[in-house]
Amino acid sequence: MTRIADLDTKITFKATVQETKRLTPENTEEIREIILQVDEPGFEVQVDQSFGVLVQTKGEFGKSTHHRLYSVADLPERRNGKPLITMLVKRCSYVDEFSGEEYPGVASNYLCNRKKGDAVKLTGPHTLPFTVPEDRTANLLLIGMGTGIAPFRSFVKHIYKNVDDWEGRIRLFYGARSGLELLYLNDKDGDLTNYYDEETFEAFHALSPRPHFADPIALDAVLEERTTEIVDMLKHANTHVYVAGYEKIRDVLDKAFSKIMGSKENWETRKAELIAGKKWAEVIY
Questions:
Q1: Could you give all domains of the chain from N- to C-terminal order, each with its CATH number?
Q2: 178-195 residue pLDDT tens
Q3: Please, are residues 183 and 87 in contact by the beta-carbon 8 Å criterion?
Q4: Does the global pTM surpass 0.85?
Q5: In terms of C-beta density within 10 A (0-12 exposed, 13-18 middle, 19 or more buried), how is residue 32 classed?
Q6: Cα–Cα distance measured from residue 179 to residue 140, given in angstroms and rounded to the nearest whole number
């Protein structure tokens, strides 16, 4: 697996913020959709790629460069011959394991604070593990939480706009704390609902039962409700499982799929087959 520290940051591109808007309500975690225009027309990024953001920071040891990767959240476009990139950013913080103090996340706060017209330094493009199978009958299980919907939004839109005669089943499972935070699947920003009319596409929402009490998002329950179909899909050798979200999603999915497959051993065997066949891919934030 490629480490972010191994990625080339020598070649950079200047981008300018064209739009920035908050997608989540004010009393919830802040997630913003930011549209960047890359000033150099030679920069190209596709839906199966990511790009980096470089942030200059000042610490006790002097200046340093902070590098973070982001997925493309919409189909790339051009304006006046220059590439446009859409990204999702959640404003984050972290707790220092030694001091116990909470600090703002460097890249996320930098980006959430950018205004229209501000410059941002990019790297890339870099490879993402999510690719459209050549087999048009392949099944896709797409599972995301939080900003993990970003790569799947562009992925689904790409398939139904640019790939001819797609026949495989696409099932998108997405978790959010409340209905208002169902990014691109709610009444306000619900462009993914445009694909509900496609015979091969279905999306399922997982919400927290008590969002104001920080209860966990019931992604496992929503998956288990579809046990029959998921088991049927996993029986096929051409089924791919793509996962994007926070690190805790791994444990949630292992427990859910163990129940769905009848035992932990059954799931571990099937997951190993998916990984060996390059049909399991994940992007963990």
A1: 4-127 (2.40.30.10), 139-284 (3.40.50.80)
A2: 555 667 776 666 778 778
A3: no
A4: no
A5: buried
A6: 24
